[in-house]
Amino acid sequence: MAEHGLSAIPDLRSEHVNQFGCSPITPDQLAILAEPGTTQIRVIEALDGQLVTNELRVDAPIVDNRIVPDPTQDVLKLVVVNRYKDAPPSVGFIKNFGLTQGAIASSVGHDSHNITAVGCDDDSICRAINLVIGARGGLSAVSGNDPDDDHLLALPVAGLMTDTDGYAVAARYAALDTYAKQELGSTLSAPFMTLSFMALLVIPSLKLSDLALFDGNRFSFTPLQLNGSGN
Questions:
Q1: How far apart, in whole angstroms, are the C-alpha atoms of residue 195 and residue 213?
Q2: Is the pLDDT of residue 123 over 60?
């Protein structure tokens, strides 16, 4: 079956089963206009090594009537794109990823395995998502300082797996993980693993689906923006 670390099983290739029906997105699709009276936003607080999250209420960072990420406060934009069809991206905000520039994205996102991305600016988030769309699945990381510094682990089998050599895949994943931490600044022990659970709606307290923010305690959708009365 194997000798000297090499498999003796024939490498038989088959057609990749995959369902990717979405088109590339543009940065303007990620813009969030501030509603009249908005003073705060709901923010997901990711917890390192845990599936549960907290719900934070943060003063809305508004620039030119748009709610924007604030990397200086570690309030980053979180995006979920429906991978199965063209639909408007769902946009929220998240804290504790620690990115200081750029973005990461993944089509490994329990349970629906849509594309989930987190980043410091719309251009970087868009690039990271479109890398995954172009590969019909995978993990990506892009720099906010160098538009040519893009990194991708393609997962062409259902957008979740690959038939590439396991050692090569492990090395590529390790390189992406290191890049997300050392170059982009993530403070999480496993940023891609944490990202994969930020759309898992059944785990409280707050998650993001491809439709909207979801309150796992009340088990209902909840608005992103809050006015002065807290509603």
A1: 15
A2: yes
Is residue 199 assigned to a domain?
yes
Contact 111, 155 (CB under 8 A): no
Is 100 domain-assigned? yes
229 pLDDT above the threshold of 60: no
Q: Are 186 and 96 in contact (CB under 8 A)?
A: no
Number of domains within the chain? 1
Q: Residue 91: enclosing H or E segment and its boundaries?
A: strand 90-95
- Kindly report the number of other CB atoms within 10 A of residue 190's CB atom: 14
Give the pair of three-digit tokens for residue 168.
Answer: 């090569």
Which residue reads 């030119």 in tokens? 64
User: Rounded to whole angstroms, what are the CA distances from 205 to 117, 140, 157, 175?
Assistant: 19, 26, 31, 31
Q: Give the residue among 76, 53, 50, 41 at the shortest CA–CA distance from 185.
A: 76
The candidate with the shortest Cα–Cα distance to 34, out of 5, 12, 64, 77, is 64
Query: What's the burial of 90, exposed, middle or buried (CB within 10 Å: 0-12/13-18/19+)?
Result: buried
Instruction: Give the pLDDT of residue 231.
Output: 63
Residue 86 is part of which domain span?
17-225
- pLDDT for residue 230: 57
Amino acid in the structure at residue 100:
T
